[in-house]
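for the recovery benchmark. tokens below, seq after
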């Protein structure tokens, strides 16, 4: 791996689950699509008396309940209320549920429409039962139906509502980040840059504390591997590396200049080792994007909170610089971020300094054929 390849009307009935003091006068939205929907529904008006920056509201549109989620003081979801909180809690598919609720509502909102709903469904490669897409908005009314979510070859989702062994309704759609969130690549890049420029220095990752039976010893003295997963290549893994602390015989993560590759892997895969490293990063986008300097653990935490798993591999090593590769993979939303990081291993013992990085974000995994040169 010696190179990095760039992959080609309204009645509002408010049910507020919070207090009575507004958390902020300005309403912000997680996406441009949500902002447009929020303006049509006048969501800002119902947020005036909301106290908590993390809550859920119910409003009505055309006599159907609409769910509005607020996270961190930002509107993160608007859509017909189809899935219950229990269903959301039982299955790790919040992006799928949000997509279906938002898409169903968006199809009903007034305003000049460039494409018909049928044309939208065809363009977005969405198929459903013969009863028609319109039935989706009412599927939440029957809480006796069982719901299943299937990932078909990691390329398509199929969501089914079943009554015993009979399928009452199904809908299929691509596992695609832009579709799931109603965004474009240019918007994704713009918002990613803004988020990384302001990500907090604090981090909340916790280093795994393995027990002996989980660790794989090899020929080196006091050296143990906690096996993880691999992705695409055998040497792109989530493996972690430990040694025994002689004072109390506990296993601690390796982090020293004596083991540069293992130390960098532990730092980058987990984001849980205390350090003062920063990353000076160039982002490859469809449009020119500014360089970003961010605290390393804060950046890693940002990707983790957005559902990504970090896979690590070593490329070239020319003392004292190691060229490393990271894939931040979000399987359930069908994308990965690819990053090359150059780290000076002489910084490891003092745990501070600046690494340089190059990031290619939001690669649709269904279109990836090769990530690295051989």
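predicted aa per position
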């Amino acid at each position: 791996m010696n190179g990095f390849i760039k992959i080609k009307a309204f009645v509002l009935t408010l049910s507020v689950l919070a207090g009575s003091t507004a958390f902020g006068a300005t309403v912000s939205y997680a996406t441009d699509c949500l902002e447009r929907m929020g303006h049509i529904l006048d969501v800002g008006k119902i947020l005036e008396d909301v106290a908590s920056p993390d809550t859920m509201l119910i409003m009505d549109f055309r006599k159907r309940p609409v769910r509005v989620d607020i996270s961190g003081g930002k509107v993160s979801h608007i859509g017909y209320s189809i899935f219950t909180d229990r269903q959301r809690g039982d299955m790790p598919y919040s992006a799928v549920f949000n997509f279906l609720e938002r898409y169903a509502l968006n199809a009903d909102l007034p305003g000049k429409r460039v494409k018909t709903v049928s044309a939208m469904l065809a363009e977005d490669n969405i198929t459903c039962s013969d009863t028609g897409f319109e039935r989706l908005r009412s599927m939440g009314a029957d809480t006796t139906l069982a719901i299943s979510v299937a990932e078909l070859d990691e390329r398509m989702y199929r969501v089914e509502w079943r009554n015993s062994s009979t399928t009452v309704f199904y809908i299929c759609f691509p596992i695609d980040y832009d579709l799931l969130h109603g965004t474009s690549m240019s918007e994704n890049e713009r918002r990613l840059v803004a988020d990384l420029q302001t990500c907090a220095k604090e981090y909340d990752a916790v280093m795994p504390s393995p027990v002996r039976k989980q660790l794989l010893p090899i020929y080196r003295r006091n050296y143990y591997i906690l096996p993880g997963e691999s992705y695409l290549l055998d040497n792109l893994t989530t493996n972690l590396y430990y040694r025994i602390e002689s004072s109390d015989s506990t296993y601690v993560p390796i982090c020293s200049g004596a083991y540069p590759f293992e130390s960098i892997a532990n730092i980058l895969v987990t984001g849980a080792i205390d350090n003062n490293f920063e990353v000076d990063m160039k982002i490859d986008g469809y449009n020119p994007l500014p360089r970003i300097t961010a605290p390393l653990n804060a950046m890693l935490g940002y990707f983790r909170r957005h559902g990504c798993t970090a896979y690590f591999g070593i490329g070239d090593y020319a003392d004292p610089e190691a060229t490393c590769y990271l894939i931040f993979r979000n399987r359930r939303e069908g994308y990965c971020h690819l990053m090359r990081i150059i780290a000076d291993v002489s910084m490891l013992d003092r745990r501070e300094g600046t690494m340089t990085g190059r990031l290619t974000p939001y690669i649709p995994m269904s279109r990836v054929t090769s990530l690295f040169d051989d």
